[in-house]
Amino acid sequence: MYRLKKISALIPAAGSGTRMGMGLKKQYLTLHGKEILNWTLENLLGNDCIDEAVIIVPTEDVEEVQEKVKRWFVASRISTPYKVVAGGETRQESVYRGLLALEQHTNYVLIHDGVRPFVPQQQIAGFLDAIMDDQTIDGVIAGLRVTDTLKRVDDESIILDTLDRACVWAVQTPQIFNYNLLKTAHEQACANHLTTTDDAALIEALGKRTKIVESDAANIKITKPFDLIVAEAIIKNNQNNSID
Hints:
The protein is of the alpha/beta class. Strands 5-4-1-6-10-7-11 form a seven-stranded mixed sheet, sandwiched between helices. Strands 2-3 form a two-stranded antiparallel ribbon. Strands 8-9 form a two-stranded antiparallel sheet. The chain has seven helices and eleven strands. Helix 3 packs across helix 5 and helix 5 packs across helix 6. The protein is globular, with a radius of gyration of 18 Å.
């Protein structure tokens, strides 16, 4: 319980990892001897805020991941109750399956990508405070301010205009919502054949308000080989800081 509310985490890790091009699903690639999904679970669940977790993986991997997580949690002394469930064909379908696997009396759902191994653990309570303390919002998502100049282009990559980067953020996870609202958003999206790339967009489709809270640049999503180089550097930096 956090502030007398039940917090449930969904960790979608059902992707095929084709962009990585390494013949192994990216969530199972290793960094310093530990699989990426292991790093993610340790950082996300290594605190007292989250009461249960649902890990969503490809159907063919469910049994293997169940055994892996059991070993990982023993090694890391994580006691959070968890389930491993099969995902769907899309991220959206996978998250919905995860929602259905949760206990009905949960209050808030925290969704975090299985391939974001460096979620800022110390910020999780702050993300939860943000949604609990502001009754005018319906969701909170992690994000970063954009520093590059952004151009909007047409189908032929011809520039149409320049966006005001002061109004644009790069979205990350965690994303946190009220359980009942998020479940309704997914059901409405299914009924209306709406497909999106993140859950905040489903909340927006209901006309609800979501707030971005600034996160950490180290909270990277590993999708391409170069990201592995960055991840190794982050681990090395964290190890050096812990020694200091």
